[in-house]
Write a structure and sequence with these properties.
Elements lengths: L4 E5 L5 H10 L5 E4 L2 E5 L8 H4 L3 E2 L2 E2 L3 H7 L6 E2 L6 E3 L2 E3 L6 H8 L3 E4 L11 E4 L35 E2 L6 E2 L2 H12 L2
Antiparallel strand pairs: 1-3, 1-4, 2-3, 4-5, 6-7, 7-8, 9-10, 11-12
């Protein structure tokens, strides 16, 4: 069984240094093209960071923590157990109402940081008491100041025309053209 390989395409400045490093490995790493190397996946973490900065790894630019530190880029926020919420600057951020952690905090009477429309990490955050959503209940109105200065309201959707839409294949009637078209695709085509 062949080992999984990772294709590394070093920057032109690092290509010779990477080739020297590849030749020293046991077994030697092979080349995939004149500008890229096949690195065994289990050995990839041992490649020196300075050889990878700016490289393309399996077709994607390598993101280096060393390079990020030089550019002053903050490390990514830590993802919490629910998979959507995260920790940023030492505080938990729960941007979605169905988060189990957020529900637990609400049951304790805590306030939770939530994003308003168009806000994201590093943007303004408002404090709002958490509450459970009720199915069928309309969402609260969003105040105009929550939107950015360049926000444009969405146009109202066009209402469906009144009447019935008859299927030409079986004379069944539908209340919408979309319903009729879906029926035709499912029952009368192919």
């Amino acid at each position: 069984m062949r080992k999984p390989m990772i294709e590394v395409r070093p920057t032109p400045e690092q290509r010779r240094a990477f080739a020297r490093y590849a030749v020293l490995q046991k077994p030697k790493w092979r080349t995939v093209s004149p500008v890229s190397f096949a690195v065994p996946a289990d050995l990839f973490p041992a490649v020196p960071e300075e050889l990878l900065i700016g490289s393309t790894i399996d077709g994607h630019r390598y993101v280096s923590p060393v390079e990020d530190a030089q550019l002053g880029v903050q490390p990514p926020a830590r993802l919490l157990d629910c998979g959507t919420c995260y920790e940023e600057n030492g505080e938990e951020v729960h941007p979605h109402p169905e988060c189990p952690a957020r529900s637990e905090l609400a049951s304790l009477g805590a306030t939770v940081a939530v994003f308003g429309p168009g806000e994201g990490p590093g943007g303004p955050v408002t404090e709002s008491p958490a509450r459970e959503a009720v199915p069928g209940e309309p969402l609260p109105e969003i105040p105009a100041e929550a939107y950015g200065p360049d926000a444009v309201p969405l146009p109202e959707p066009e209402p469906e025309p009144e009447g019935s839409f008859r299927c030409d294949g079986c004379d069944r009637e539908f209340t919408t053209a979309r319903g009729r078209d879906m029926h035709v695709r499912q029952k009368h085509e192919g």
